[in-house]
């Protein structure tokens, strides 16, 4: 299951959305979203949209429409295969029927070869985006993905780093004041200040970890 989750999160965001719509049972919404992708996108995203269209039609008992989607998919990329471990039987049967319909020995076209190259390129860009975002949240998005998202994540990261640094310095000063306090009033006041900055530092660290985690998806 961990491997499956890793593979899902490694895919582009539209594919993750298609996956969520299918497993949540929103088939009509999935078909509409997938159709918009098929008309405007290319490469791995288009192939996955056709696949999930077929899955949705099968779930709605429209086997012929599902086979038609698989035929379009195989015309785009004759080497496309479904994973038999994670694909339900009806989908595998419809996929095999589509392969028979177009011929098992289909000759790859220039467009299908380009699609294969686009798939590898899309996955490669996603992995590079993740590596850069692991180094500094948002950097990978800014260079390889959504620049607006990248700028936002980098700004939040810098703000949290600044908050951690400032709260740590303030905590040390409050601690020094606490250690030098001469009476109970000064001790109580210094302790409250020290405790406040300590909690703020912890919250900033937790927030920074949250940004690092979010930047990976």
Record the SSE blueprint:
Layout (H helix, E strand, L loop, with lengths): L1 H8 L3 H11 L3 H14 L2 H17 L3 H14 L12 H14 L7 H26 L3 H6 L2 H33 L4 H32 L2
List keywords for this structure.
217 residues; mainly alpha; Serine Threonine Protein Phosphatase 5, Tetratricopeptide repeat; 2 domains; 10 helices
Structure write-up:
- By secondary structure, the protein is mainly α.
- It has two domains: 2-102, Serine Threonine Protein Phosphatase 5, Tetratricopeptide repeat; 136-215.
- The protein has ten helices and no strands.
- Helix 5 (63-76) crosses helix 6.
- The two termini are 17 Å apart.
Outline:
This protein has helices at residues 2-9, 13-23, 27-40, 43-59, 63-76, 89-102, 110-135, 139-144, 147-179, 184-215.
Determine the strand fraction and express it as a percent band: under 5%
> Which percent bin holds the helix content?
over 70%
Distance between the termini: 17 Å
Structural class: mainly alpha
Secondary structure tally: strands: 0
The name of the CATH topology of the largest domain is Serine Threonine Protein Phosphatase 5, Tetratricopeptide repeat
The sequence of SSEs as H and E is HHHHHHHHHH
- The first-level CATH class name of the largest domain: Mainly Alpha
Alpha carbon gyration radius: 26 Å
Mean pLDDT: 82
Gross morphology: elongated
Chain oligomer state: single chain
